[in-house]
From TrEMBL:
It comes from Desulfurispirillum indicum (strain ATCC BAA-1389 / DSM 22839 / S5). Its EC number is 2.7.1.166. Catalyzes the ATP-dependent phosphorylation of the 3-deoxy-D-manno-octulosonic acid (Kdo) residue in Kdo-lipid IV(A) at the 4-OH position. It is an enzyme of class 2 (transferase). This is 3-deoxy-D-manno-octulosonic acid kinase. The gene is kdkA. It is a peripheral membrane protein.
Amino acid sequence: MTAFHTHTLAPGHFLLSCDGHGEARWFDPSWRQQHAVQQGEALGRGNSQILRIGDTTVVLRHYLRGGIIARLNRDKYLWQGLKDTRPYRELTLLLKLRDMGLSVPNPVAGRVLRRGFWYTADIMTEYIADSLTLDQWLMSRQISMDLWQRIGATIATFHRAGLDHVDLNIRNILIDSHKQVYLIDFDRCQLRDPDSHWQHGNLERLSRSLYKLGHYTPWQWQQLMHGYRQPASLHRT
């Protein structure tokens, strides 16, 4: 597995750089205001920005808490060592998934700022050009039977590899202009032994997100599950 490099920039200030990409200044709002071009915002929880920095386009995401706890603690996490921080774990997982040949964005860099018992963090991944979330596709165009099946087949490929995506929803599935399907946002996700229990939980979460945002129809779900259940040799991802 390709490793990333850890740089201590100052006491409690860490940069995690993948494949020689990512610089500390990329995380500095003042520097970005002068040297980066914001090209949009990515959907999903938190503040995710699409930025053009030189020849590289990245998605910058600040780690934010969800649920009830976010009302009291928006973005601070308990410090238990650098290897237990959110970006360290997510970048490590992304590198493993990429090396397995799965459709994920390339990891770029992460930043951790420790203050006493707590830390805040950010992550950068490579922007997938000409892509839309499944949510955006559903709002702007028809999705063919073949594409629904391809989405299901992609999820099955990740599941066979042991990826438990704990936040699988229509905003964490990307489709590019060539109808290549990707999964994104692997915070708190993990590789584990394939098991129908957690796999079913992932699918249930996706089904709820389709229903919640008014995009669920039995036919669509049947096509997705048809692709999901196809033998591995027939999956096209």
